[in-house]
Amino acid sequence: MRYFYHGMVQLGSNLSRASMTLRHINLRLILWFAPGVLLGAWLGSLFLVDLPLALVQICIAGFILLLCWGPPIPAVATGPVGTLLAAGLTTFVSLFVGATGPLVAAFVKQQQKGERFSTVATFATAMCLQHAPKAVIYGAAGFVFAEWLGLILLMIAAGAAGTWAGLRLLRRLTDSRFTLLFNALLTLLALRLIWQAISG
User: Fold this and answer.
1) What is the average per-residue pLDDT within 59-74?
2) Does residue 36 have a pLDDT over 70?
3) d(CA 199, CA 196)
């Protein structure tokens, strides 16, 4: 259930981020990401079970570190088919783990070659697509979130304020500085996943 609430807050926050960076969205990637999301969500709706969390966390962390610090992934992996498969896989896993955002971020960053505004805008839009099906799938499974609506809306508003402040800072960064900071943050998140998997 916590993944459902997390998904709703993330959906609202990423909607605000996408709307503030609308002209920078890479629509070509999104057009291939969207059907992958639908495929992953459909498969996930058939298997509403728990996956081995520690194993999934370590796998996600490994892919994040590879995408951040490894060699550039082949062009076919960031092309239409690779984007569709990545969307399907991460959407499927996100229904059970809720920790795929950093992996999608690392993938989008490579696909956008580190261009900061396109990376932020496209990632936000991709995450909107990925979190939206959770409302339908978990709602159909019987989860009721009306009693948490006020808190969810408050968290979304706080996220929008953070996005506004973050975009002001983003304008002052170069693409190379953004890439370094982005990789560092994603690495910390990956290490946190590894620690959670080991200690959990």
Assistant:
1) 87
2) yes
3) 5
Q: Which residue has the tokens 């002001």?
A: 168
- By CB atoms closer than 10 A (0-12, 13-18, 19+), residue 173 is middle
CA distances from 194 to 57, 176, 184 (A): 6, 27, 15
Per-residue pLDDT averaged across 65-74, rounded?
A: 86
Q: What confidence score (pLDDT) does residue 194 get?
A: 93
Tokens read off for 157: 């508003």
Which tokens go with 117? 């505004």
Model-level pTM? 0.84
pLDDT at 3 (0 to 100): 56
